[in-house]
């Protein structure tokens, strides 16, 4: 569960990224964040994983308030999936997946690549679950397609069986068919573990297809919160300040 209590966040330059956000995302829910570029979606995600600090308000993961002191406890319970994959492209697939265990491994053993044996066994299981074979273990990430790289990213995010998955535009650089496959995989793995998903997207049709709930931000403010069925073309047009066409959101046609 993630709970925002009147959270605001201002960048060092003085720009207010989030304005008085109050929001509760229950355990196991797939919540998609929508909104134009600069709306505050990434800022919201970065507050949850501790990369941004709220200027005011409180933010909880479960019953624990996120503070500088509590981050060490909270971070192993959060998996992160990135838009640009955020993988070490010259390293092997196996090395990238096992890196997902870093929050739970002391610094020195991690630097020496000394991970518990059970973690290494788990890498093979995770690759199988995301549709990659053992033949991929020793391949460099740079040799993989974009879709395969994001599968590696998903496997890495689930390395510690996190209670929460944060995904920041995870399919922005992928074609529509691969995007749908990747989101289906992400949602399937999250539901298998009862994990909460908070995912930002720009693709309205995919949001409607995969979300349990849609939350939209505009200029740092919460402007929509409801089930996908309530996100009509008119509501989407108000969020993006432009008419929504069937080409942009085929589910609305």
UniProtKB/TrEMBL annotation:
PANTHER family tied to this protein: AMINO ACID IMPORT ATP-BINDING PROTEIN, PHOSPHONATES IMPORT ATP-BINDING PROTEIN PHNC
Entry keyword Transport: yes
Transmembrane segments: none
A GO term from the CC aspect: membrane
SUPFAM superfamilies: P-loop containing nucleoside triphosphate hydrolases (SSF52540)
GO molecular function, one term: ATP hydrolysis activity
Domain ABC transporter: 2-244
Domain of life: Bacteria
Species, as recorded: Asticcacaulis endophyticus
UniProt entry tagged with the keyword ATP-binding: yes
The name this protein goes by in its record: Phosphonates import ATP-binding protein PhnC
Keywords: ATP-binding, Cell membrane, Membrane, Nucleotide-binding, Translocase, Transport
């Amino acid at each position: 569960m993630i709970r925002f209590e009147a959270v605001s966040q201002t960048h060092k330059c003085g720009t207010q990224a989030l304005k008085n956000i109050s929001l509760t995302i229950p355990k196991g829910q797939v919540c998609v964040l929508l909104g134009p570029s600069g709306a505050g979606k990434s800022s919201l995600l970065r507050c949850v994983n501790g990369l941004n600090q709220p200027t005011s308000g409180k933010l909880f993961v479960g019953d624990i308030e996120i503070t500088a002191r509590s981050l060490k406890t909270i971070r192993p319970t959060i998996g992160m999936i990135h838009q640009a994959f955020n993988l070490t492209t010259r390293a092997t697939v196996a090395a990238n997946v096992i890196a997902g265990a870093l929050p739970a491994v002391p610094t020195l053993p991690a630097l020496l690549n000394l991970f518990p044996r059970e973690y290494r066994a788990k890498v093979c299981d995770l690759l199988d679950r995301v549709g990659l074979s053992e033949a991929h273990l020793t391949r460099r990430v740079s040799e993989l397609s974009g879709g395969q790289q994001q599968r590696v990213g998903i496997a890495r995010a689930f390395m510690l069986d996190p209670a929460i998955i944060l995904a920041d535009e995870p399919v922005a650089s992928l074609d529509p068919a691969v995007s749908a496959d990747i989101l289906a995989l992400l949602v399937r793995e999250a539901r298998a573990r009862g994990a909460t998903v908070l995912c930002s997207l720009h693709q309205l049709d995919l949001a409607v297809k995969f979300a349990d709930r849609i939350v939209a931000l505009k200029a740092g403010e919460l402007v929509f919160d409801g089930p996908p069925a309530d996100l009509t073309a008119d509501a989407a047009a108000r969020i993006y300040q432009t008419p929504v066409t069937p080409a942009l959101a085929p589910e609305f046609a």
